[in-house]
Automatic annotation (TrEMBL):
EC number: 1.1.1.179
Lineage per the UniProt record: Eukaryota, Viridiplantae, Streptophyta, Embryophyta, Tracheophyta
Highest taxon above the source species: Eukaryota
Protein name stated in the entry: Oxidoreductase family, NAD-binding rossmann fold protein
Keywords of the record: Oxidoreductase
Annotated family: Belongs to the Gfo/Idh/MocA family.
Domain Gfo/Idh/MocA-like oxidoreductase N-terminal span(s) in chain numbering: 7-126
Family annotation (SUPFAM superfamilies): Glyceraldehyde-3-phosphate dehydrogenase-like, C-terminal domain, NAD(P)-binding Rossmann-fold domains
InterPro entries assigned: Gfo/Idh/MocA-like_OxRdtase_N (IPR000683), GFO_IDH_MocA-like_dom (IPR055170), NAD(P)-bd_dom_sf (IPR036291)
GO molecular function, one term: D-xylose 1-dehydrogenase (NADP+) activity
Domain GFO/IDH/MocA-like oxidoreductase, first and last residues per copy: 143-261
Pfam families listed in its UniProt record: GFO_IDH_MocA, GFO_IDH_MocA_C3
Coiled coil (residue ranges): none
Length: 365
């Protein structure tokens, strides 16, 4: 497109997820990778070689060097959560737009420091929740908003689990309180909470109550937990996240007239083939119920897509950044709200666990 700006990305860190973002940036026509930095030049150089990055990509032996590169417009930050507030604030203060991996912060106070820096310096913020950008997600929202098919939303359940094994539980940064101290709650519980809030148009619940007997390691990092969420109008939701059980990425949303189910929220099973699916049921035939057929067959909806959800995320972020750079708009605040509300509920779940599984009231400030 003639008026499209190609946004120049830098990446802080060589985490596994950085591989995915390098590929996504290369496939988005409005983005290009020009710099990557690590804690050592050797590690950054090895990463660039292993991933076959173009020679034009500058390799740095520090995160600071990426931020000091005047040609970098935006940065992707996949560092451990405890480091987010430091490096996201530094990036914003240097005028770099911020694509920040989830969970975005250790708590909402840290996130507010990040958002304040982004607002003060006029840069775009977005978290790295890729599923929100898949075309399938927009189609699911259409189904939920169709009152004739779905009715009034009443209940949501999400289950996000995988079992990475004893080595992970012993040595992963997800298990270290000084690096990613939110554990399973931050890593995969973030998706459950976000999916629940997305379902209710980001209306915060009135209260949160963690389920008893959460599993914590010897450093008090959450390995497995669950919670219920309650709204004043009677809606409710539950979720479970765990590093101790078989892989599962389910979301079920129930209304008075229909239901919506998704078994692969974080990464569509068939995305590499250009589509994603979800199941939706509605219009019960009560004559069949009388014949003993209580459960109607779900309709499977296939949503075709030109790009994988990580590419869509990069494209949307780069589109916003490009418009800001062309002075066509100011930073879009919607993504700040999405992340902040997710963080508020996550904090409340953690607080409920710490308070001996007492109910925690949600107060929006």
């Amino acid at each position: 497109m003639a008026n499209e700006t190609v946004v120049r990305f830098g990446i802080l860190g060589c985490a596994q997820i950085s591989i995915k973002l390098c590929k996504a940036i290369s496939k988005a026509q409005n983005a290009t990778l020009i710099a990557i930095g690590s804690r050592s030049l050797e590690k950054a150089t090895a990463f660039a070689a292993e991933q076959g990055l173009p020679e034009v990509v500058r390799v740095y032996g520090s995160y600071e060097a990426v931020l000091e590169d005047n040609e970098v417009d935006a940065v992707y930050i996949p560092l451990p959560t405890a480091l987010h507030v430091t490096w996201a604030v530094k990036a914003a203060e240097r005028g770099k737009h911020v694509l920040l991996e989830k969970p975005v912060a250790m708590n909402v106070s840290e996130l507010d420091r990040i958002l304040e820096a982004c607002e003060t310096n006029g840069v775009q913020f977005m978290d790295g929740s890729m599923w929100l950008h898949h075309p399938r997600t927009a189609k699911m929202k259409e189904a939920l908003c169709d009152e004739q098919r779905f009715g009034q939303l009443k209940w949501i359940h999400s289950c996000m689990t995988y079992n990475p094994g004893p080595e992970f539980l012993k040595n992963s940064i997800r298990m270290k309180p000084d690096l990613d101290g939110l554990g399973a709650l931050g890593d995969i519980g973030w998706y459950s909470i976000q999916a629940i809030l997305w379902s209710v148009n980001y209306e915060l619940p009135k209260s949160v109550l963690a389920f008893p007997k959460a599993t914590l390691n010897e450093d008090n990092v959450i390995i497995s937990c669950g919670s219920s969420l309650h709204w004043e109008d009677g809606k409710s939701a539950t979720f479970h996240c765990s590093f101790l059980t078989y892989v599962n990425f389910d979301v079920t949303i129930l209304g008075t007239k229909g239901s919506l189910r998704l078994h692969d929220l974080t990464l569509p099973f068939e995305e590499s083939l250009g589509f994603g699916t979800f199941s939706e049921s509605s219009e019960i035939d009560y004559a069949k119920i009388e014949q003993g057929r209580w459960c109607p067959r779900a309709n499977e909806h296939v949503v075709e897509t030109m790009f994988s959800q990580d590419v869509w995320m990069v494209k949307e972020f780069a589109d916003l950044v490009g418009k800001i750079m062309r002075l066509e708009m100011k930073p879009e605040k919607t993504w700040e709200v999405v992340s902040r509300k997710t963080q508020i509920v996550l904090d409340a779940v953690k607080e409920s666990i710490q308070r001996g599984y007492e109910s925690v009231e949600i107060v929006m400030n």
